[in-house]
Amino acid sequence: MPTQDRRTVLASAAFGALMLLAAVVVLVDAMRLPSTGSAVGPAAVSLLVGVLLGVVGAGLMVQSRMRLPHAVSGSPWQPRAGLRVLAQVGALVAFALLLPWLGYVVSTAGLFVATALLLGAPRAPQVVAYGWALAAAAFLVFDRLIGLSLPSGPWGF
Residue ranges of the DUF1468 domain (predicted)? Predict the structure, then answer.
């Protein structure tokens, strides 16, 4: 197990705790949603999201607890970290501005690709393929299966 910075480990634990809190909020809200009578409704997806948030949050907290005794003080220097944060904010703003014109799939795929590359994903062609696949799958689930209207853009997706 590689040695990690103590601040990074504690930040991961705090983020895991926030995810657990968000999971509780999502699950409580999902239980309050009215039944639509269809096989898969908004409550089903909300319950799945809440459970996944809770599992990932708990996993982060357990992982952080295991790494904390071996963590070292000090923080590793990350070159151009501030520039990457600004680029991510720019990607989010571009997503919000382009969503009505390009549609959900294209805008979401672009945001996914930008985020993955800013976080250091090694293979850009794979990242583009994953971005398109995830955005298209989310569009199909929410827009077609559940019936929540998402911006379709000029291409109908």
Answer: 15-151
Domain count, the chain: 2
| pLDDT tens profile 26-46 | 999 988 888 776 666 677 888
Q: Contact at 8 Å (CB) between 134 and 107? A: no
The CA-atom distances, in angstroms, between 146 and each of 37, 114, 131 are: 12, 28, 21
pLDDT at position 74 is 74
Task: Report the alpha-carbon distance of residue 106 to residue 155 in Å, rounded.
Answer: 10
- Same domain? For 113 and 92 the reply is yes
* Bridge partners, residue 5, by sequence: 72
Residue 50 near residue 27 (C-beta atoms within 8 A): yes
Task: Kindly report, residue by residue over 57-67, the tens digit of the pLDDT.
Answer: 999 999 999 99
Query: Does 152 map to a domain?
Result: no
Q: Which residues sit opposite 72 in a β-bridge? A: 5
Print the domain residue range for 91.
81-146
Domain membership of residue 76 (yes or no) is: no
